[in-house]
Amino acid sequence: MTDMTSSVQSAYVRPAQARRDIGIKRRYAAERRFRAYGVAAILTGLFFLFLLLWTVVSNGYTAFQQTAITLPIEFSEKIIDPKNERADNPAKLMTANYPLLVRDALVKALAIDPSNRALVKQATDMVSASARTQLRDIVIANPAVIGTTVDVALLAEGNIDSANKGQIDLKVAEANRKVKDQQLAWMKTLTETGAMAKQFNTGLFTYGASSRPEAAGIGVAALGSLYMMLIVLALALPIGVCASIYLEEFAPKNRLTDLIEVNINNLAAVPSIVYGLLGLSVFINFAGMPRSAALVGGLVLTLMTLPTIIIATRAALKAVPPSIRSAALGLGASKMQTIFHHVLPLAMPGVLTGTIIGLAHALGETAPLLLIGMVAFVVDFPGSPMEPSTALPVQIYMWANEAERAFVERTSGAIMVLLIFLVVMNLGAILLRRRFERRW
Amino acid sequence: MSTSIILLIILIVGLAAYFSGRARAMASSNGKLSALHSLPGYHGVYVAIWSVLPAAVVLAVWLIASPFFVESALRASLPQEVTSQGAATTELTLGQVMSVANGLKLLNTDELAAVTNGSVNLRDALGAKGVPLAGDGELYMVKAAQDYNTMKENSRWAMSAVVLVIAIAGAVFALRGISAPFRARNRVERVMLGALLVASSIAILTTVGIIGSMLSEALRFFNSVSPSTFFFGTVWDPRFSAAGSGGTEGQFGLLPLLAGTLYIAFVAMLFAVPVGLFAAIYMSEYAKPVVRGIAKPLLEILAGIPTIVYGFFALITVGPFLRDISAQLNGLVTGNYVNFIQAQSVLTAGIVMGIMLIPFVSSLSDDIITQVPRSLRDGSLGLGATRSETIKKVVLPAALPGIVGALLLTASRAVGETMIVVLAAGVAARMQLNPFEAMTTVTVKIVNQLTGDLEFNSPQTLVAFALGITLFAITLCLNIYALYIVRKYREQYE
Amino acid sequence: MNMMSEAAVEKALDQKMNTAPYKMTGKDVSVYYGEKRALFDVNLNVRENTVTALIGPSGCGKSTFLRCLNRMNDTIDSCRVTGKIVLDEGDIYDPSIDVVELRARVGMVFQKPNPFPKSIYENVTYGPKIHGLARTKAEFDQIVEHSLQKAGLWNEVKDRLHESGTGLSGGQQQRLCIARAVAVSPEVILMDEPCSALDPIATAKVEELIHELRANYTIVIVTHSMQQAARVSQRTAMFHLGNLVEENDTDKMFTNPDDQRTQDYIMGRFG
Predict the structure, then answer these.
(1) Closest residue in B to A365 (Cα–Cα)
(2) Partner residue opposite A247 with nearest CB, options B198, B200, B209
(3) What are phi and psi of C164, to 5 degrees?
(4) Do A400 and A427 touch, CB atoms closer than 8 A?
(5) Count of CB pairs separated by less than 8 Å, B with C
């Protein structure tokens, strides 16, 4: 009995209560360090994000303004059509000496001695060479203007524009500077008289390629991108959805479908430039499609976007619960009817989200387009996807290779436009997901 | 008739077939729809398929095949003295005849007569119409070109007729089969299934196309440059390919490009992996939902920014910054303000590419880490481990295979990245270890060799395909291995 | 004394138990998940070297209360605990109390066996390693053997200590998790339905083990099986809809409960 009691007693003895040293301080220091690394990593990522955006915006926001010089242009008949032949030969108007009109207007506005060649040259250099076509277009559109004087807002030359925006370092010695002191003085007078002013740069959105920054725009490139996006949408969405439906709903589970599965996942990770090589070799060399055409670009981007859409669609189809399928099948619907009447509509938000994200990706893609000849100097709007065109990111690439300050500004401006498109598309995808997302 | 008009006609026939099929089904139901096996719409679609599908297939085949037949007929009609001069001359003449044929269409009858009887120089006549001719045309060419045009014309008419007949015959055939018990839906669904199958085979075809096209072009390259000098060559100096100057032999050594590619990818990973991994860990294990809800999408913006923008960022900001800071550092240490980092360098490209990769690493690892079951974390925390101990000793080891897979996928992206290196890495192909100097990559050289005016058959351009297939092979291995690991990992915790 | 049947010893033990000092005391413990209140002012005492069983229909808050005892609820973001829980005179929710230290003293075994995907040896040494309880290989070996023996697993695994813990059977895994908890030498061991994922034979082994552990540890066990509660515990607390309905000696609880709801539950009228 005593034994028993003692065993009972011993069971009662509390475990040693002496506080063990389990290194709390040291361990919490390690904990804090570890946490700090995490915070630092996220801050690093965010820092670079903001640095990148800041680089683009700080360089680019000025691109949306353009300096214009408004001059009273005298459309003198003596200069435009000295022999009065425009009635017989309208082509004469095409080749008239329009720059002379600009020169005369400048000489008058700045009160320069017309015989001082050097000075006059400096003055005319301030106006973009695109003034010629600008005046020509005015005259051809309305020949009645000849003989009158009209105020015309001419684009300032790129460097003058940069100087007007304060982007040229005036401390540099005049000889090494693109803008001379005399021109700066004129700029001052012109600004004071109100002749020189910054206006919204509509040209950025409507012009095509140009070697003169002030006359270069993304309009043509944007149209090319639009063509390609339409082609991608028209091809990749139906093909992607059909392929996903087959793979998810019909394909027998065997080695072949396994292979297709691996294959699609791999295609999603193949470098985009490889698609460019594919396009060059198959569509252009083999099928004989035209180089630089938006059609080829669209096809290449379609192939590139397909895996993304297929993966997203399959995930969306998978998320539709089997009960929906059973319900429809139980009512006597065929498998095809079940899928097209019930499963696919329910999966549609997911499909569209994936498609928009794929499209956004395709919109920003550059590398494959370089290989199929879309690095082209395209001045005119392409009338159809078969005509030479370029794309927004390719235009950015070409401008990025230009040295002039005014091009840096335009590159950044174009990037801002591109990013705005991407943000809108992605926001659309997010909203779509939020709005229609269903939790089963 | 142009192809688009033929297509339009087929579609109209198809539409008519649809409605007549529908109507016939309705009629055979005697007003009781339930008497039909399939809804009238299915009957309509069935008839439309019969009329459109065979016709469209024939049209496509004809369009693809007829140029070959016409061209071989043209080839056979060329005079003996041309064909005997070898394949190159034949091809040249063939091309000339075809441009003559195009030009002849622009001439009016008088001019045509003048050209045919030889009274006017062919080259001048066509030149006036804006069709340039490589050499002085010869009389037989005019004849051959006219034959060629006639053949093409005839083929086109025959095609239009055949296609139209097939479309109508198909519709009639299908219409006759329609009756109330006819299982139109099953037929239509079988065709739909076929269409789905075709769509999903495009994925396979793309891979086949990539491998096939690149391999065949690469083989042409290896005809003129031996594979061993390509794969083991240490000098990259392709020279320029001027048309006709076949004598200049360039050197096509892959190794300097591969070295640059791997070096830059390595620097990028060195930067992106710790940042991305720690960001993922913080986001999945520490961050409050609010912080996570803000920081995660913000970081993912980085993944959505086109790479050309990163290239511009490297060119405008990072490159000049590194160059200037290195000059300052050098000046402080040695008094000599000369930069030791080039604006275009391995470091510039590596860092910028690293920034681009941060969101890849972080979101892939985030997915992987959150898949580690909560019970493991609870087990560790329940024993009194701190969070960081739990992460380091339990979560990360458990997630390791998945993370390795994710990193391999990221590495594959780094190797295949183009626009950043095009703008930030430079074009100098050299083998060296200094990260402050410019090196170049496989992708940069593919772009360089294939942009601008090019003569397609020279090794200088074909080498791009050899580079491409090398790149594809590398990324394929990385991807497949990575996907395999990640898949195994997912299965483990499902 | 040989005559003393085991049952008699147990009985003697049990009677003493009921007067054993309190190891942990919960006072007005309430738990909120976001807006939703999961526990309403629970007052519950856990006696030293006793097995206390928490029973009740599912969703009654018994697991929630258990997880409060070593602050595992801290790992759930939306969870908020009010009231006071005292361990040996110290409020465990006091800001000065360290969670890590607390959990080293109050160990936990979970519903589903959750061995780390590491070797059996590493599973057991994990706790001692992070807390620095041992330095040399010999010390670790000793801890491993001791803990595995306590968990009744030693004989089954002593030849394969370096094989993965996930390769064991479900029952063995759960006993490994108990060994893992024991290796830290906690004062209290919390068990959250430790047998719910096990087959009857494995369950019997674990129950036997709980019996033995009681000599050295204070044990709180959540179970949905009333038979199990009757078999392993000396004290039982019944939860219903987030309220503590009744706390009593197990014997009394199952024969003559004070509260009608307990009676109904034990009779199987709801659950």
Answers:
(1) B306
(2) B200
(3) -70, 140
(4) no
(5) 73
Q: Are A62 and A164 spatial neighbours (Cβ–Cβ below 8 Å)?
A: no
Q: Let me know if residue B192 belongs to a domain.
A: yes
Residues A190, A245, single domain; the answer is no
Q: Would the CB atoms of B384 and C103 count as touching at under 8 Å?
A: yes
When CB atoms are compared, the residue of A242, A245, A396 closest to B308 is A396
CATH no. for residue A231?
1.10.3720.10
Q: Is residue A210 part of a domain?
A: no
Same domain, B354 and B259: yes
Would you say B297 and B363 are in contact if contact means Cβ atoms under 8 Å apart? no
Rg value, chain C, Cα: 19
| Residues 249-288 in B contacting C (C-alpha not used; CB under 8 Å) | 288
What is the total count of domains within chain A? Answer: 2
Sort out which chain B residues have CB atoms less than 8 A from A31's CB and list them: 386-389
**ipTM passes above 0.85:** yes
pLDDT tens for residues A256-265?
888 888 899 9
Q: Is the pLDDT of residue A86 over 60?
A: yes
Contact A272 B475 (CB under 8 A): no
Contact B94, B75 (CB under 8 A): yes
Same domain, B319 and B432: yes
With beta carbons under 8 A apart, name residues in chain C contacting B373. 114
Edge-to-edge strands, sheet with C22-33? C36-47, C22-33, C79-87, C90-91
Q: What are phi and psi of A88, to 5 degrees?
A: -80, -40
Tens of pLDDT, residues A149-202: 888 888 888 888 888 888 888 888 888 888 888 888 888 888 888 888 888 888
Nearest to B479 among A46, A238, A269 (CB): A269
Report CB contact under 8 Å: B204, A260.
yes
- From the list A11, A17, A22, the residue facing C104 with the nearest CB is A22
pTM of this structure: 0.84
* pLDDT 10s digits, B185-214: 888 999 999 999 999 888 889 999 999 999
Closest-CA residue of C relative to B392 is C130
The structural domain count of chain B equals 3
The answer to whether B386 contacts chain C (CB < 8 Å) is: yes
Interface test with B, best of A24, A26, A42 (most B CBs within 10 A): A42
Residues 6+ apart with CB under 8 A from B356: B268, B272, B302, B303, B305, B307, B310, B417, B420
**Residues of A with Cβ-Cβ distance to B194 under 8 angstroms:** none
- Tell me which of B1 and B141 has the higher pLDDT: B141
Structure confidence by residue, pLDDT tens digits, C147-199: 998 888 999 999 999 998 888 998 899 999 999 999 988 999 999 999 888 88
* Residue B278 sits in the same domain as residue B402: yes
Residue B278, min C-alpha distance to chain A (Å): 5
Residue A439 Cα distances to A319, B26, B494, angstroms: 9, 42, 20
Tell me, yes or no, whether A25 lies in a domain. no
Please name the helix (run of DSSP H) or strand (run of DSSP E) that holds residue B59, with its range, or none.
Answer: helix B40-77
Q: Which residues, 6+ apart, have CB-to-CB distance to B65 below 8 Å?
A: none
Report the pLDDT value the prediction gives residue B471, as an integer from 0 to 100. Answer: 95
Cross-chain residue pair C116–B375, CB shorter than 8 Å? no
Domain C6-109+181-266 has CATH 3.40.50.300: yes
Q: Which domain holds residue B211?
A: 186-224
- Residue A48 C-alpha, separation from nearest chain C C-alpha, in angstroms: 30
Candidates A348, A354, A343; CA nearest to A436 is A348
CA–CA distance, B234 with B256 (Å, rounded to integer): 6
Q: What is the pLDDT of residue C16?
A: 52
B203/A contact by beta carbon, under 8 A: yes
A 240-259 residues with CB below 8 A of B?
Answer: 240, 242-247, 250-251, 259
| Contacts A14 to C, Cβ<8 Å | 48
